[in-house]
Amino acid sequence: MWKTMELYKTLIGKRVNRDIFSSNGILLMPAGAEITYDHLVTLEKHGIILTRHDVAGDAPAPAAPFSHEAAIEEAVKHVSQVFDEIRETRKIPITDLRRDVIPMVHEAAISTNLIDLFASLQAKDDYTYRHNIAVGAISTLIGKWMGLDPKELMQLTTAALLHDAGKMLVPEEILNKPGKLTDEEYEIMKSHTVLGYNLLKETVGLNERQALVALQHHERLDGSGYPYGIKEDKIDLFSRIVMVADIYHAMTSPRVYRGASPFYEVLDQMDKDSFGTLDPQITRTFVHKIMNGLIGRTVVLTDDREGTIMLIHPHDPLRPLVKTGGDYIDLSKDSSVHIKKIH
């Protein structure tokens, strides 16, 4: 173990090869973060002393983000083939999905660098296909964080990947329309939930709960969603998880008819929605995990100061402790400023 200042100096500039958590579960350093003197001081305050096994170069380094991005790109290619087959045959090639796509989604969901993972999930010119991969990966992460057993997690991943399968039965001129849909077109678009439910329900190897995800992922806990406006406990847990993943990826992805919403604004809105339309436990778990992944990242505040996120508050994760120059700003205590942009 390194305890002296001289040995501390040998660590600065190297990178940790795993996530470093405090005793109460707060992420202090994400895997791959470059070690600074401030990090070492913070870790020591939490009773944590780095060992040689925690430092890249002295131990196996974490998987490079590129491997996850490559897995996602390969999964998008396979999903496009699966969804094209659904459009042509009105049947789901479930064997192909399980063989070619689900393992890649689980590989992507192993990522310890959530921000880079989410960046690689951002829609490009293949939103329809990439969105399903993203919702599958994000839902899988949420399922892990919520302690689902392996069998449930596999069912959730499959259901999340197929949550929008019904869109393959919607006319392409409506599905790909660049402008705003008419009221009649919007009603047709909304029918993808029922169409998807029927499609999944008729697929051998899928169960009723997985089919419900296709039906319910646009429902909302306050009854404001569609197709049936059901509320709260009538919405299955899988559907609630996919609901959060679906909203996050849709809002942070650029579309033909609008730009992507800023990452932080999306999290802030989702946090507000946890008091009405979204499941509070799922949403807050998601927001908390994402914000913990930002420790060590550079941010721009609304007063244009740049700083580094040093600490995430367990009960107020969207308003962290930020270091700017030689000062520390606790955003949970200063309501006049908040995060505007994340680098």
Structure overview:
The chain is α+β, with helices and mostly antiparallel strands and about 350 residues long. Helix content is about 50%, strand content about 10%. The strands form 2 sheets. Strands 6-5-4-3-7 form a 5-stranded antiparallel β-sheet. The chain is globular. The chain starts with a helix and ends with a strand. Residues about 1-5 and about 60-65 have low confidence and may be disordered.
Task: Describe how the helices and strands are arranged.
Blueprint: H1 5-11, E1 20-21, E2 27-29, H2 37-45, H3 65-89, H4 94-108, H5 114-121, H6 127-145, H7 150-161, H8 172-175, H9 183-190, H10 192-201, H11 208-216, H12 237-252, H13 263-273, H14 280-292, E3 298-301, E4 306-313, E5 316-324, E6 327-330, E7 339-342
Antiparallel strand pairs: 1-2, 3-4, 3-7, 4-5, 5-6
Helix pairs in contact: 3-4, 3-5, 3-6, 4-7, 6-7, 6-12, 7-11, 10-11, 11-12, 12-13, 13-14
The total of beta strands comes to: 7
Estimate the helix proportion, in percent.
40-55%
Strand arrangement in the largest pleated sheet: 6-5-4-3-7
Large-scale geometry: globular
Taking all Cα atoms into account, the compactness measure Rg is 22 Å
Query: How would a textbook summarize the main sheet?
Result: 5 strands, antiparallel
Distance between the termini: 33 Å
β-sheet strand percentage: 5-15%
What is the tally of helical segments? 14
Secondary structure category: alpha+beta
List the secondary-structure elements in sequence, H or E: HEEHHHHHHHHHHHHHEEEEE
Uncertain segments are 1-6, 59-66
Which whole number gives the mean pLDDT? 85
